[in-house]
TrEMBL record:
Top-level taxonomy: Bacteria, Bacillati, Armatimonadota, Armatimonadia, Armatimonadales
SUPFAM superfamilies documented for this protein: HemD-like
Molecular function terms, GO-annotated: uroporphyrinogen-III synthase activity
PANTHER family assigned to the protein according to its UniProt record, in alphabetical order: BLR5956 PROTEIN
CDD domains linked: HemD
Domain of life where this protein originates: Bacteria
Protein name: Uroporphyrinogen-III synthase
GO annotation terms (biological process): uroporphyrinogen III biosynthetic process
Pfam families: HEM4 (PF02602)
Domain Tetrapyrrole biosynthesis uroporphyrinogen III synthase: 19-245
Length: 257
């Protein structure tokens, strides 16, 4: 197992980091939990409530994050009844699993690759059909723009806010002591908030030199590169399992000559 003894930072939110930590530990890694995001309900949930109260007028409910599902279920305990009839599309298996767990409905569509762009291409919509996308306040408009260009009538409502996380290890000190082998990012917001949190706690981007930076997918990698970081690992399959497999490939020992 190439991850044995590797000290790997998990930047996922506290409520969702346990599975990733367990997977990394199962591969021998020493996990450093450093929650860089937290999820908060929208400051004004009236638009979300109005959209969900009128689900019958939509042809598709499109879910792009497990956080969206959990927030919807927390705010509206009656969601299981509300989504009984509407077809659901999910961006990836984690979101689909959340839909089944929290809404009691399986997604009937998953794209072949787990990105918003792929979902926008795969959704079998007809011109004039109505699509509801509850999403993060900072979600890129890409998916809505794609579907609108295909003739759909798209409604985007804020489902949750992403705020900076707290707690976990003193990563600034560990980086300064060269005791970190890799930092993992599973969304663009984990990148943004990792850098903001690190610098607010006395750390520096320079301390990331020589540390493997691993991103789960292209949007996350684009966010890292926009900050001037070099992405070392990005899996072909944009899942936690794919990310761990790609990290294993990165750390495979080079045979001695």
């Amino acid at each position: 197992m190439p991850l044995i003894g590797k000290r790997i930072v998990n930047t996922r939110a506290t409520h969702q980091n346990s599975r990733f930590t367990a997977l990394l530990q199962a591969h021998g890694a020493e996990v450093i939990e450093y929650p860089c995001i937290a999820i908060a309900p929208p400051e004004d949930d009236a638009p979300l409530r109005a959209a969900l109260a009128d689900l019958a007028r939509f042809d598709w409910l499109v879910l792009t994050s497990a956080n969206t599902v959990q927030t919807m279920a927390a705010l509206f305990p009656e969601m299981e009844d509300a989504v009984e009839e509407i077809p659901i599309a999910a961006v990836g298996p984690a979101t689909a699993k959340a839909s089944a767990a929290y809404l009691g409905r399986k997604a009937i569509l998953l794209p072949e690759t787990f990105t918003a762009e792929a979902l926008g291409k795969a959704l079998p919509i007809l011109p004039g059909q109505r699509v509801l996308i509850p999403a993060s306040a900072i979600a890129p408009p890409t998916l809505a723009e794609q579907l609108t260009a295909r003739g759909a009538i798209v409604t985007v409502v804020e489902a949750y806010r992403t705020i900076r996380g707290t707690g976990g290890a003193d990563v600034a000190a560990l980086l300064a002591q060269r005791r970190v082998d890799a930092v993992t990012f599973t969304s663009a917001s984990t990148v943004d908030n990792f850098l903001a949190r690190l610098e607010s706690e006395g750390g520096s981007r320079a301390s990331l030199t020589g540390v493997c930076l691993a991103c789960i997918g292209p949007q996350t990698a684009a966010a890292a590169e926009a900050h001037g970081l070099t992405v070392d690992v990005m899996p072909a399959t944009h899942t936690l399992d794919g990310l761990i497999a790609a990290l294993g490939d990165y750390f495979v020992p080079v045979p001695a000559r």
